[in-house]
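Structure in, sequence out. Go:
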């Protein structure tokens, strides 16, 4: 028997429940991982509250974890029982002691990456990889705007930007979060609770504004983010922490300076095994060189996943949050 977190209808953190049942056996091409640490991500909140529909009910939750291969299905040769692995894009159900997923979704962990670090960095780090290295390939010397700079994705983005020689202006909601972002390598911060974001960007860039804005806040920041771009700049809208951006009048892009906009996802970039492996190599190299150090600021037992959701949704967390299965 093993413990799993599930929900039978969408709603607040209270819909999450722990159930005990016989774990599934891996089918052809699948592996079963005994999770030692599970990653908590804002996307899990969207699935739990119904913004991103789960394929069926009851549903598991979570797509990211790290642990040891416990069983392999027919035809799996890429990993063996006992291998240390991690994954970021599993099917829903990573909030569990055991998780079955396609072998193509797991990567073997290098010795220098422990399970907790892996669960804290895989999804968020691969996201930063595609945002800074693929969506808008930064070369160094640019000044960019990145929202939620003290959060999970943001903390990694600050460090990766510094490593690239990019001046990252990060938005935050408190002085403590500003300190954290600066320690992680932000070049400047803007506390949006008391400062006007476009005005501060104008000041910090000497009137030039920025070529790219990375916006995971969504509804609340859509328009102010467009106001921070210079002509023909790129708006990268990659999340909905405040709610989704809806009812967009496309003419606004022209009014605000012939702007570009994209709405990317990790699954849209790590969409083949080759691309996934190349992105993992890039991320692992950043970890090995020490240019990125993952800050696990919150740890919760798996059974308290609902409390972890409440903390993440109410802006109480910083850096990464992980869930620890009781059996690990
Ligand atoms: P974070 O740790 O960054 O938490 C979200 C942060 O957003 C908060 O701490 C808060 O920071 C800020 N925020 C601003 N407005 C709100 C609001 N109304 N409610 C809640 N938070 C708000 O989470 P993650 O690192 O897990 O994810 C960051 C974002 O990136 C999410 O939107 C997520 O969906 C997105 N994402 C997108 C991916 C993709 O491929 N498209 C992949 C991974 C993540 P502050 O208090 O400083 O404002």
């Amino acid at each position: 028997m093993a413990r799993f977190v599930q929900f039978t209808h969408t709603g607040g953190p209270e819909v999450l429940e722990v159930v005990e049942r016989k774990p599934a056996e891996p089918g052809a091409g699948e592996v079963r991982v005994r999770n030692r640490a599970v990653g908590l991500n804002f996307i899990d909140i969207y699935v739990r509250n119904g913004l991103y529909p789960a394929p069926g009910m009851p549903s598991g939750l979570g797509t990211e974890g790290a642990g040891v291969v416990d069983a392999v299905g027919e035809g799996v040769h890429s990993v063996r029982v006992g291998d240390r692995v991690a994954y970021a894009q599993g099917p829903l159900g990573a909030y569990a002691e055991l998780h079955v997923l396609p072998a193509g979704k797991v990567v073997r962990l290098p010795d220098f990456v422990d399970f907790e670090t892996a669960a804290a960095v895989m999804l968020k780090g691969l996201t930063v990889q595609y945002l800074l290295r693929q969506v808008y390939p930064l070369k160094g010397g640019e000044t960019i705007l990145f929202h939620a700079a003290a959060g999970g994705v943001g903390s990694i983005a600050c460090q990766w930007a510094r490593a690239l020689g990019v001046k990252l202006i990060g938005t935050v909601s408190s002085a403590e979060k500003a300190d954290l972002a600066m320690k992680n390598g932000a070049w400047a911060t803007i506390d949006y609770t008391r400062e006007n974001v476009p005005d501060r960007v104008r000041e910090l860039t000497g009137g030039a504004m920025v070529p790219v804005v990375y916006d995971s806040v969504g509804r609340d920041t859509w328009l102010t983010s467009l106001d921070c771009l210079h002509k023909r700049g790129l708006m990268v809208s990659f999340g909905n922490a405040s709610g989704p951006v809806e009812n967009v009048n496309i003419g606004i892009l022209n009014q605000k300076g012939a702007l570009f906009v994209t709405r990317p996802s990790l699954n849209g970039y790590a969409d083949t095994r080759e691309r996934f492996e190349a992105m993992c190599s890039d991320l692992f190299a950043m970890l090995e060189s020490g240019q990125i150090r993952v800050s696990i600021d919150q740890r919760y037992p798996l059974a308290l996943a609902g409390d972890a959701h409440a903390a993440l949704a109410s802006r109480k967390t910083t850096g990464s949050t992980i869930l620890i299965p009781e059996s690990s």
